[in-house]
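Hi there,

I know you've been waiting on this one. I reran it after we fixed the sequence typo, so this is the corrected version. Both the input and the resulting structure follow.
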Amino acid sequence: MKLSTRSRYGTRMMIDMAQHCNEGPIQLGKIARRVDVSVKYLEQLIIPLKKADYVKSLRGAKGGHMLNRAPDEITVGEIVDVLEGGINLTDCVGNPEVCEKHEDCLTRSIWEEATKTIYEKLNSITLAEIIDCDKKV
């Protein structure tokens, strides 16, 4: 399994916004420079995060983007879920009917358990914990 750049870069962007959450709205250009991702790509990532209510945007000269929740209320799992459209390792985990062998499949329970473990781990890590860990290094 490999996470897409959407999840990796989106998580980087959200961590950056958490690190600077007391500074008010942040322009994507500043975030892009700090996380080394193009503004165009961050513009694509911010849309689903806004729709999911993790980010809010303000227009105008002092506008930009900011977290809509405290960093300790947002998990990496939530970010990945929004940007990947779910965390299932296989299509059949989320929707068994996509596979005609789902009732007899000997491996499906393995994929379900692995998905559950990954989901639990990612959902146990908040942006605040990452920032605190980052400060200790």
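Quick highlight: The longest strand covers residues 55-58.

Best,
R. S.
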